[in-house]
Every structure is written in structure tokens, then in C-alpha cells.
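Each record in this resource describes a single protein on a pair of labelled lines. An example record follows, reproduced without changes.
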Amino acid sequence: MPSPVTPDPEKLDRFLEQGGEFFSWNEGKNTPNILLNLAERISELRSTKDDAGKNLRQTVDEASKSSSKLASALNWLTLIGAVIGGLSALSSSMDNI
């Protein structure tokens, strides 16, 4: 059962969109100030949500790039270690001849 505190993201998007449209449609009419403030807050919340999504995507992209660079560096170190180990084994077998 979903948490009552954490709404479904799609439902939240629909709520924000419909609420914003409703309150902007009523703006300038005989709408109580509390409703106008709520319209502004809904708009700010949508903007904050969008900004957070962009920041999260950027952070994930940067982490992915860093992870790729680290994996590449570790692959090179492993290759160098294998080459050194192979040369060492070859040198040791040559000494035994």
C-alpha cells in the first residue's frame, strides 16, 4: 500500500498542473488571497521539482562519467600488472634454463 505522505509522481504532476490552471484562471477575479497564494506556491513547487530533476540528472551523468573513467583506469592498471607478471614469469623461467 503506497504511503499517504509520498504521493504517486504522476498524480502529483496532474494535481499541480490542474491546480495551477484552476488558480490562474481565477486570478484577478473575486478570488480570496489564500487561493492566489496557493497558486503561486503550486507554481514554485513545480519549478522546484523541475530544477531538482535537472540537478539529479546532471549528478547521475557526472557520476556515470566518473565511474567510466575509473573503470578504464583500473583496466589499464590490471593490464600493466598482467604484463609485468608475465614478463617476470618469463624472466624467471629463462633463468632456470
Q: What stands out?
A: The chain has one domain: 9-95. The CA atoms of residues 55 and 61 lie 10 Å apart.
